[in-house]
Design a protein that fits this description.
By secondary structure, this protein is mainly alpha-helical. It has one domain. 83% of the residues lie in helices and 0% in strands. It contains 4 helices and no strands. The longest helix has 24 residues. This is Quaternary ammonium compound efflux SMR transporter SugE. Pfam families: Multi_Drug_Res. It is found in: Cell membrane. Keywords: Cell membrane, Membrane, Transmembrane, Transmembrane helix, Transport. One of its GO terms (molecular function) is transmembrane transporter activity.
C-alpha cells in the first residue's frame, strides 16, 4: 500500500505545482483553495508512505513523479517546450524512479 500512497502523493504534488500557476500569487480564491488542498493531500499521502519506506527513497520518488507530471502538464496546458533534451532528462528521472522501486525492499 505504501507504493500506492507514494504514487498518489506524487500526482497531488504535480497538481499543486500546476495549481500555483493558476493562483496568480494566491490572489484567486478557487485556484488557491484547490492548490492548498492538493498540497495537504500530497503531504498526507507522502507521510503515509513514509511509515514503511525509507525517507530518501520516498522523497526522491515523490519529487520525481511531481517533476514528470508537472513537466508533462506544463507542456499540455501552457505550451511549454518538450524538446528532445527535456524528454531525455525526463526519461532519466523516470529510470531513476523505476530503479529505486526495483532495488527497494
Amino acid at each position: 500500500m505504501e507504493w500506492f500512497f507514494l504514487f498518489i502523493a506524487g500526482l497531488f504534488e504535480a497538481a499543486w505545482a500546476i495549481g500555483l500557476k493558476y493562483t496568480d500569487g494566491f490572489t484567486r480564491l478557487y485556484p488557491s483553495i484547490f492548490t492548498v488542498v492538493c498540497m495537504i493531500l500530497s503531504f498526507y499521502f507522502l507521510s503515509q508512505s513514509l511509515k514503511t519506506l525509507p525517507i530518501g527513497t520516498g522523497y526522491a520518488i515523490w519529487t520525481g513523479i511531481g517533476v514528470i507530471g508537472t513537466t508533462i502538464l506544463g507542456a499540455l496546458l501552457f505550451n511549454e517546450s518538450l524538446n528532445l533534451a527535456r524528454v531525455f532528462c525526463i526519461l532519466l528521472i523516470f529510470s531513476g524512479i523505476v530503479g529505486l522501486r526495483l532495488i527497494s525492499q
